[in-house]
Amino acid sequence: MAYIPALLIFVLCFLLSANANAQRNHSNVIHLGSSLSPAANRTSWLSPSGVFAFGFYQSRDGFAVGIWLINQTEKTIIWTANRDDPAVSSKATLDLTRDGQLLLRTNEQGREVPIADVTEPAASAAMLDSGNFVLYNKTSDVIWESFDFPTDTILGNQSLSAGNSLVSSVSQSVQTSGRFRLDMQDDGNLVAYPVNSSTAQYDAYWSTRTALTDDVQLTLNRSGLLFLQIGESGVHVLAKSSYSDKNNGIIIHRATLDVDGIFRLYSHHFGGNNNSSMLMEWSALPNQCQVNGFCGSNSYCSGMGNKAVCNCYPGFDFIDSSNKFLGCYRNFDDNACRRSKDPAMLYSVVPFENMWLGNYPYSVVQMIKKEDCRKSCLEDCNCGAVLYGDDDCTKYKLPLIYGRESENTSDTAFFKVIRENIIAAPPPVPLAPKVVTESKRGLILILAISFGFISSLCIIFAIYSFIRYRRQVFGYRRLSENANLGLTEEFTLRSFSYDELEKVTCGFKEELGRGPFGAVYKGTISGGNKAVAVKRLEKVVEEGQREFQAEMTAIARTHHRNLVRLLGFCIEGSRKLLVYEYMSNGSVADLLFKGEMRPSWRERVKIALDVARGILYLHEECEVRIIHCNIKPQNILVDETGTAKISDFGLAKLLLPNQSRATTGAEGTSEYSYWAPEQQKNALISEKADTYSFGIVLLEIVCCRSSIEVKAATADEIMLSSWVYQCFVTGKLDKLVEDENVDFVTLERMVKVGLWCIQEDPDLRPSMKNVILMLEGAMHIPVPASPVVSLL
Ligand SMILES: *[C@@H]1O[C@H](CO)[C@@H](O)[C@H](O)[C@H]1NC(C)=O
Ligand SMILES: *[C@@H]1O[C@H](CO)[C@@H](O)[C@H](O)[C@H]1NC(C)=O
Ligand SMILES: *[C@@H]1O[C@H](CO)[C@@H](O)[C@H](O)[C@H]1NC(C)=O
Ligand SMILES: *[C@@H]1O[C@H](CO)[C@@H](O)[C@H](O)[C@H]1NC(C)=O
Ligand SMILES: *[C@@H]1O[C@H](CO)[C@@H](O)[C@H](O)[C@H]1NC(C)=O
Ligand SMILES: *[C@@H]1O[C@H](CO)[C@@H](O)[C@H](O)[C@H]1NC(C)=O
Ligand SMILES: *[C@@H]1O[C@H](CO)[C@@H](O)[C@H](O)[C@H]1NC(C)=O
Ligand SMILES: *[C@@H]1O[C@H](CO)[C@@H](O)[C@H](O)[C@H]1NC(C)=O
Ligand SMILES: *[C@@H]1O[C@H](CO)[C@@H](O)[C@H](O)[C@H]1NC(C)=O
Ligand SMILES: *[C@@H]1O[C@H](CO)[C@@H](O)[C@H](O)[C@H]1NC(C)=O
């Protein structure tokens, strides 16, 4: 019987130890009814190992709720809840309420802000050793975790899946959204951009260039390997921590998009006894000046490594000299240029060596002398600065963005400044004077207030123009596309000489077609590996060189996948030529009416949507609204991937007045059949004229036939629009299409949209935005009335 006490002791010990274990684990479970407050004894909940804390930390003029690493010389914040909300006061509380909500209660009128958006009530919460704060439901399944909502950092065992971003913080201590973002794009690329920029190639300043598949995510694993997980098995390693698991103590890895826009990998080593150390393991870029937007507009970046500084260009002053990242404004009156007959007299230029002005010039002229380059900027009111190097003259508008000092000593930048002897501008805003006599105080106060007002206007204007400028110039373009294209081809117009174009087209040998403007020839540039279409404008108004160039620049700014891109131009006296990208599959007219292999139903539906999107862009999305005035199948070209693109846009106003009523005659079809009634009557037209033309084209695409077919089987069928309407009201849409694989729901949609587009009253015709919604089936389409039948 002696073994009984032993057994008892054993059982007791077992229970005690189990109890101790449970106790320890228990202490890290956060129960319903728990709360934290900056003013209370408990301001945070720790993870079991004590490395991570979740709770209130001091931020700005109050407190924020987040997760941080403890015992760090510099507070290392990993995550912040609702980071862009205002800071809360010390009276705020964070409650895991009895009904299973995690709420931040601020003291102002008892406002309640949910920290975690949960669909079912939580049963408990925990701050895990991985740095993940989680909420559990009754069955201990995780129903919410902070790892799903990263701010600027990912930790070991955390991933950033496609479509998500990290956004840098304003500063080390203020975790609100800062100036940069890192996108895990769904095209497989991990790309860093300035936070509010487009995804245009030249806004990006760092990329993994992985563009492989859409199934990619960024992952940092527990042993500090930072990699892109591609599909099931592919791995693209970005960095590896040098700390290995055999080190003593706890190691935490984190990858952060830092305040300066650079993505870095860090390791933290916790040795106990308040001995912790941090190591920067990897940096995506070695130099802060490589970060686009590190300096604000009209300022440039200089310096190496992590010691970059921002300076204003000549002729500019800081918007706020206490925050040099905000950029600079021009310290003289810019408008004088446009008022002046001889702007070159007003300004001089200041040369600046070793400067790079960014990727967004508005004009590149090749083979030109330095002096002519300098002069061309002085005479051009749009020009804020030019860069001259290798006989290329590259002009930039304000605001100048992404500029930095460069090691390329062959380049010289010239900045326009006002001439000293001309007093055209108010003096720059003076700093507050140090000594103020009593009598002048009032006056100075008034001056200070007005200057304050003026400078805030300047800031607002600068920001507005910056945003506007960005919206104008940058089309939506993923980095992965055209990554191999050079700068001049991508975003600027190239100016060609006539001789050059003669060579490019082998003496205008191969004619591709003829339009109202003249003939189009095939050519090749870039040493014969890029096909282009050269359009010789013959019947255009004699405009000044500058107006023509302005027109071309406006066209060049349109960037849309459903518009044929203008690559360059040539003006020599009365000779005017335009160089476009070459469309290898010809026009939609060829495909629909001539081709032996007509496009399939699916291809036709895609062409119709492509055209609609191109027109929508012209009408609503580009800088200057453009009414095409001449939408017809001959003007819609198809590239090698089968994407339809609209051409000849923006040219309508260059046509001679009598020319604009000409017919092409090439196919024997009157151009009038695409014209809206108001256009035929030469009345005032709106965007709805293009809607009408689109309607006719749409019906042609649906039926694969021309809008007027004299040789039709029956008289009813001659006019396509009345024939379609007749089939529609009699419910015999199948008569319109010969194809086998027609989807009749889409067919009916397309027919109804087409009939709405060709209503006589322009107000009845839908906008292109609605046309697209209706074609996509996202918008109900009422039954259309009989359209006008134009018999011209
Ligand atoms: C408590 O945590 C330890 C490790 O931290 C684990 O081994 C043990 O199983 C846990 N106990 C319970 C009751 O969950
Ligand atoms: C803090 O703790 C002390 C002692 O444990 C207790 O008396 C006091 O009420 C607590 N204060 C608050 C605000 O909870
Ligand atoms: C631990 O180290 C941190 C940073 O060096 C310091 O702020 C903190 O006061 C230290 N804590 C103790 C208890 O020494
Ligand atoms: C807890 O969540 C899991 C996963 O969402 C779910 O399957 C389970 O039914 C939930 N349990 C309760 C008690 O709601
Ligand atoms: C890592 O994350 C996965 C899910 O993302 C989870 O199932 C696993 O438990 C985590 N591992 C650790 C050690 O936290
Ligand atoms: C980005 O845009 C948002 C919303 O327009 C604005 O609040 C924010 O200040 C902008 N950030 C920067 C760095 O310009
Ligand atoms: C991290 O990834 C590396 C390479 O795939 C692997 O060797 C290591 O075991 C991983 N570590 C963890 C904790 O998953
Ligand atoms: C933080 O510092 C305290 C006080 O020195 C120490 O007891 C604790 O172990 C440290 N925590 C970590 C995770 O290093
Ligand atoms: C602190 O830890 C580092 C390694 O991380 C070690 O080299 C150093 O000796 C430790 N210092 C103390 C006082 O323990
Ligand atoms: C310097 O010039 C070379 C050749 O023109 C170019 O490849 C390089 O990108 C330039 N470097 C910078 C920093 O602009």
TrEMBL record:
GO cellular-component term (any): membrane
Compartments it resides in: Membrane
Protein kinase domain residues: 506-783
Pfam families for this protein: B_lectin, PAN_2, PK_Tyr_Ser-Thr, S_locus_glycop
Residue intervals of the Bulb-type lectin domain: 27-148
Claim: ATP-binding is one of the keywords in the record: yes
Protein name in the entry: Receptor-like serine/threonine-protein kinase
Similarity annotation: Belongs to the protein kinase superfamily. Ser/Thr protein kinase family.
Keyword list, A-Z: ATP-binding, Disulfide bond, EGF-like domain, Glycoprotein, Kinase, Lectin, Membrane, Nucleotide-binding, Receptor, Serine/threonine-protein kinase, Signal, Transferase, Transmembrane, Transmembrane helix
GO MF annotations in UniProt: ATP binding; carbohydrate binding; protein serine/threonine kinase activity
Enzyme type, top EC level: transferase
Catalytic activity: L-seryl-[protein] + ATP = O-phospho-L-seryl-[protein] + ADP + H(+); L-threonyl-[protein] + ATP = O-phospho-L-threonyl-[protein] + ADP + H(+)
EC number(s) given by UniProt: 2.7.11.1
Bilayer topology term: Single-pass type I membrane protein
Signal sequence interval, chain numbering: 1-22
Superkingdom of the organism of origin: Eukaryota
SMART domains, alphabetized: B_lectin (SM00108)
Annotated SUPFAM superfamilies: alpha-D-mannose-specific plant lectins, Protein kinase-like (PK-like)
Annotated Apple domain residues: 337-419
Primary location: membrane
Segments passing through the bilayer: 443-467
A Gene Ontology BP annotation from the UniProt entry: recognition of pollen
UniProt keyword annotation of Nucleotide-binding present: yes
